[in-house]
Design brief:
The protein is α+β, with helices and mostly antiparallel strands and 448 residues long. 46% of the residues lie in helices and 17% in strands.
Length: 448
């Protein structure tokens, strides 16, 4: 904890100060002897008698009379009790010490840039990100726009020093500038290493994305994915946009490279394949919809055909979504947005295209399918009839030749497994279409 920070603590009632060297204080003590590395809490009479030549002092019960020409730092406090001053300071110094220990631990154990930024964000109660030396976004785990304060990060080698990036805060921290600047000295070289690794992963992932498109995503590709701080279990969304002319037509998009990529590093990757622009968005990392709004504005501007699909937590579906999008474009299937929202438009042309059917099944049905397969239950069949028979318990009981109470039990039981809004007509319709798809894949299970 810096002396300048201590001087701003209101409870200490600092009336005057002379900070010769703004040292980090790791401990404080009440003693007649002097520890040069601590903050010594002392009375005005005691410090006059000691007449120190160096050290850091908090003078309690002070009238501000003590002055020194020696190179020492001292703070005058009107508190009359050294014990009270100790009680105020000790928890704050310990908290700061724990923070620095955590920072050093992250660096020593190589826990990564994201862990480091999260710890800094927690300490200063603010969102932080890394900008490059041109103030372009490099890494932003908190996905925020406004930056109010920048702190230079300098890479220090044996024979040179150069600024390579900035630690950026969403809000300003006037009273903590020196503390943050010292923190930047501690973390700079580590962030330099992490940024280089991150950039390597960015470059390599374009090859991995091509492998993903071919359905050939290897262990090495998963390592590259991890280098981006992405996970195969993250929630992803894919946009496949059909470009109907050369790239020159879309020069506002590609004049300096892919604009979506340049504006949104860490959240989005894209590749061009034949005449298709394929965008992969990490929805787990991206907390706002601005990027998707910009994509849709671009699509609208050029009146382009596109298909979008949530991969949810299954990155391996990337290839299937691309193949499905080509099928939609080639067969002029009337899909205006996400196929999962318009299953009725896709159902007819896709019957017989079994490779695509699995990724169109609503996620809510999969736990019920698993239960039916494992327990030999009839939840899907019961749900299907319940929906087709306008939720009539009596009709379902007659068709299934079971008691009405058994139908009630099954509906209640499946509602415990999955959360279904039976009052939403769109949900009911999509569930029906989804079960129709499952009927094609598992005819014996449903036996409808």
């Amino acid at each position: 904890m810096l002396l300048s920070q201590i001087s701003e603590i209101k409870e200490l009632n600092i009336k005057d100060k002379n900070i010769f060297s703004n040292e980090d204080i790791y401990a404080c003590s009440i003693s007649n002897s002097i520890d040069e590395n601590n903050l010594n809490i002392i009375t005005e009479d005691e410090i006059k008698n000691l007449n120190p030549t160096k050290g850091n002092f908090l003078i309690v019960n002070s009238n501000g009379e003590f002055k020194s020409k020696n190179k020492i730092s001292y703070l005058h406090s009107s508190l009359d009790d050294a014990g009270k001053a100790m009680e105020i300071l000790q928890p704050l110094i310990i908290e700061n010490q724990k923070f620095l220990e955590t920072i050093y631990s992250i660096i020593c154990l190589d826990k990564g840039i994201e862990s480091l930024l999260k710890e800094i964000s927690s300490k200063f109660k603010d969102k932080v990100c890394i900008l490059d030396n041109n103030k372009k976004l490099l890494y932003n785990p908190f996905d925020f726009n406004k930056v109010s304060e920048l702190y230079p990060l300098k890479f220090i080698s044996s024979n040179s020093s150069r600024m390579f990036a900035y630690l950026a805060f969403e809000n300003s921290h006037e009273d903590e500038k020196e503390s943050i600047s010292k923190l930047c000295t501690i973390i700079s070289n580590y962030i330099h290493k992490e940024v280089k690794n991150l950039q390597t992963s960015f470059d390599n992932f374009y090859v991995s994305l091509k492998n993903l498109l071919k359905g050939d995503f290897s262990d090495e590709d998963y390592k590259i994915l991890k280098g981006l701080n992405w996970s195969a279990k993250d929630s992803y969304k894919v946009y496949v946009i059909q470009l109907e002319a050369g790239l020159f037509k879309y020069r506002d998009m590609f004049i300096h490279g892919n604009r979506f990529i340049l504006d949104n590093p860490q959240y989005l990757f894209s590749i061009l394949n034949q005449n298709h622009l394929i965008l992969l968005i990490n929805k787990t990392r991206l907390n706002r919809n601005k990027l998707e709004d910009e994509i849709l504005e671009y699509i609208t501007k050029y009146n382009l055909k596109y298909y979008s699909h949530d991969l949810k937590n299954k990155l391996s579906n990337f290839n299937k979504v691309y193949e499905l999008s080509k099928f939609i474009f080639d067969n002029e299937v009337p899909i205006s947005s996400d196929g999962q929202e318009e299953l009725h438009s896709l159902m007819k042309p896709l019957l017989g295209q079994m490779d695509f059917l699995e990724i169109l099944i609503p996620e809510i049905l999969k736990p019920l399918l698993e239960h039916d397969l494992e327990k030999n239950s009839e939840f899907l069949k019961t749900l299907y009839l319940y929906l087709t028979e306008e939720r009539s318990l009596i009709k379902v009981a007659e068709i299934m030749d079971i008691h009405r109470n058994s139908v009630v039990y099954r509906i209640n039981r499946l509602s415990e497994i999955v959360d279904i809004d039976f009052e939403d007509s769109k949900t009911r319709y999509n569930l029906l279409i989804g079960i129709e798809i499952l009927k094609e894949l598992y005819p014996k299970i449903l036996d409808l």
